[in-house]
UniProtKB/TrEMBL annotation:
Organism expressing this protein natively: Marivirga arenosa
Coiled-coil positions: 314-350, 379-430
PANTHER family according to UniProt: TETRATRICOPEPTIDE REPEAT PROTEIN 29
Gene3D superfamilies registered for this protein in UniProt: PPM-type phosphatase domain, Tetratricopeptide repeat domain
Protein name in the entry: Tetratricopeptide repeat protein
Length: 678
């Protein structure tokens, strides 16, 4: 989702030090005798300039400056240092510390008469709550920030916070509020003639329509967003818009325009190193070529996607290692600070010892009568100081040893992780290559959809494997003026299920076309016996098998024969729905053969009859607001809503419904549903 968050708040000062740009010069300045207010500003400048390159040093100088600012009760400098420390921890991915510093800024701002800074601080707190998934708290702070900006009539700030709120309401699945804010942003940016704001707002509106299935509207707004980008400008926003437009064209099956825009996005993303957009564009291009049956091009595009995906993964991995090292540096720096504190205490003890010696010599000349007492007192002080020195030195040596051991341990862990990652990548690449080849084999055995569609008035096949290969399959053949069609769900999914689909497909073809069996119940009986013999159940104690719905059409006599094993048939005719249940057993499995009795049901076909069969992956998919199963009743209700649409539109509605229901949840099983209109 495209985001237009406000940049995290920076405070800047017009210092006499403006000409000092190099960090070395700033560090040298700290060695000089300068006023506290200037020293605080130098610490803040070092914190800001080192926050991305050397975060451990940046945080060290920031804490030094914060201590001095609080000592001098300099609230403005304290706010700046707290805010910039939060930004440094944000760059390290430590959102907990970032939030802590930003909330401290907010507490101080509430006591100051500066509503502009207060609204920005609230906006920043909202951003961090959004990052950590506290969307309710994020909404609260964004809306408080927006209220202040409206009172101040801060037009640019209003538009920015509204954009953040729109994106947040999309995450919270409250689309009506999201689109409301996006449209208000667009109107504000248009009045202000804010070019960047205009095309970003149009992009957000287009993404909203794309995510909620309004594909034609998505294309319209995304094209407007692209036209709003100034000619010749090449930036990340433009590349992202082009990629979104290509995806929207793909959603409406306009493969020509989708392919064209994906290719434009690829070239543009390469020029500005937009790796995430480049990755998604290659993935989209692979899907297009697959739909066009240009498998070589599809595989090439997918390989580019996979290479980029691995590269981004490696980059993220390296960033995490760098973050780990930075956090270690920060911890080490904190220990160094403690060491310096200990050394300072030692120095104070030494000074105390010298002062006591001086007092002793002075007292010796004045009060000879108390010489014995002073000598004894001096001995005690010296002995005590010596012991304290030994303790402090031992502590310093121990801390130095711990630092070295921690550094060596982290380096060893990093090397071990990198070796394991490389080995896993090699194994994964070989396994994935084999699975992709298995997918091409599985696709080759499935019947041609166009051939099936040619024998019926209308036909659709929604086929969504859970993995690269599927445990669901469909089968079709014609014999003696009859049309046979089956949909089956094999045990498991992925590679185990795919093996079963290949075997069951071949067995069905053999039973019908070679052995000449025509009765649906007899076909399922033969299939069950052959699967039992092939898999040797008694020896292996296996429960592998399949659920199946088998249909035989006699279109000349307008008759349908149905036999099912743990799969049902759903028919709509005479303006009513009728369910024909299959028998409650599976083909194969450990159930005794005498407990399995397939039955053929004969059904008269009338004009405009709709026939549906589906595997349990559709109705068992978890999702929705409460993470529940989709269920048969919800599917029946959905089919009733869309029954008057063309079958191509019905397929689109079913696919959109199950994907929207699934959301970010994992797909539970292979999903297949077939529709036939007579």
């Amino acid at each position: 989702m495209f985001s237009r968050f406000l940049l995290l708040l920076f405070y800047t000062f017009l210092l006499p030090l403006a000409a000092i740009s190099q960090t070395d010069s700033l560090k040298n300045l700290l060695k000089q005798d300068i006023p506290d207010n200037t020293r605080i500003h130098v610490y803040d400048e070092l914190l800001y300039s080192l926050s991305t390159s050397e975060p451990s040093q940046a945080i060290y100088y920031g804490n030094k400056g914060l201590e001095l600012a609080r000592k001098n009760k300099d609230k403005i400098s304290e706010i700046s240092l707290l805010n910039n420390l939060g930004i440094s921890y944000y760059g390290l991915g430590d959102y907990e510390k970032t939030l802590d510093y930003f909330l401290q800024v907010l507490d101080i701002e509430k006591d100051l008469d500066n509503p502009t800074s207060l609204s920005r601080a609230m906006n920043n707190v909202g951003i961090i709550f959004d990052e950590i998934g506290r969307l309710d708290k994020s909404t609260e702070y964004y809306e408080k920030s927006l209220e202040i900006k409206r009172e101040l009539k801060d037009t640019a700030g209003i538009s920015n916070t509204m954009s953040n709120l729109g994106l947040l309401y999309l995450k919270r699945e409250i689309p009506e509020k999201a689109i409301g804010y996006f449209r208000q942003c667009y109107n504000i940016d248009k009045r202000q003639n804010n070019t960047v704001g205009i095309y970003n707002s149009l992009h957000n509106i287009g993404i909203y329509h794309k995510d909620f299935g309004n594909d034609d509207s998505a294309v319209y707004y995304l094209e407007k967003a692209l036209l709003a980008v100034p000619t010749g400008e090449q930036n990340y926003d433009k590349v992202y818009i082009i990629k979104s437009l290509a995806e929207s064209y793909l959603n409406i099956d306009d493969l020509k325009n989708s392919e064209r825009y994906f290719k434009i996005a690829i070239e543009a993303a390469k020029s500005i190193q937009a790796l995430e957009v480049l990755k998604q564009a290659y993935k989209g291009l692979s899907n297009i070529y697959e739909q066009k049956n240009e498998f070589e091009k599809s595989l090439k595009a997918y390989k580019n996607f996979k290479l980029l995906n691995d590269s981004i993964y490696n980059q993220d991995f390296n960033n995490k290692v760098s973050q780990l090292e930075s956090n270690f540096e920060i911890q080490s720096k904190e220990k160094e600070i403690q060491l310096l504190t200990n050394e300072a205490e030692i120095t104070n003890l030494q000074l105390t010892r010298r002062e006591n010696s001086n007092y002793f010599l002075a007292a010796l000349g004045i009060l000879l009568s108390v010489l014995a007492f002073i000598s004894f007192n001096r001995y005690q002080i010296k002995n005590k100081a010596h012991k304290q020195l030994e303790i402090k030195n031992d502590e310093i040596n121990q801390q130095r040893s711990e630092i070295k051991e921690n550094r060596d341990e982290i380096a060893a862990q990093r090397d071990s992780i990198l070796e394991q990652k490389q080995a896993l990548e090699e194994v994964n690449a070989e396994t994935l290559k084999s699975i992709w080849y298995a997918q091409h084999i599985q696709k080759a055995i499935l019947p041609d959809i166009n051939k099936i569609r040619s024998v019926f008035h209308e036909f659709f096949m929604l086929y969504l494997p859970k993995s690269i290969v599927s445990g669901d399959f469909y089968w079709f053949t014609e014999r003696n003026n009859k049309i046979y069609f089956a949909l089956a769900d094999c045990t498991g999914h992925g590679i185990p299920g795919a093996f079963m689909t290949v075997m069951a497909n071949d067995l069905l073809t053999s039973i019908v076309n070679q052995q000449g069996v025509e009765d649906c119940a007899e076909i399922l009986y033969k299939l069950d016996q052959t699967v039992l013999n092939s898999l040797q159940y008694k020896e292996n104690s296996s429960n592998d098998g399949l659920d199946i719905a088998l249909l035989c059409f006699d279109l000349k006599n307008r008759n349908l024969s149905f036999s099912g094993a743990s799969m049902d048939l759903l028919i709509y005719q005479d303006k009513g729905w009728h369910t024909f249940k299959g028998e409650r057993f599976s083909i194969g499995g450990l159930k005794e053969p005498n407990q399995k009795q397939a039955v053929s049901l004969n059904i008269d076909l009338k004009e405009d009859t709709h026939i549906y069969i589906y595997t349990d992956g559709f109705v068992d998919q978890f999702g929705g607001e409460f993470d529940k199963k989709f269920m048969r009743m919800r599917l029946r209700s959905l089919l009733d809503e869309i029954k008057l649409l063309s079958f191509e539109k019905q397929k689109e509605k079913l696919e959109h419904a199950i994907l929207e229901w699934k959301g970010n949840s994992e797909q539970t099983d292979d999903i297949s549903i077939t529709g036939i209109r007579i």
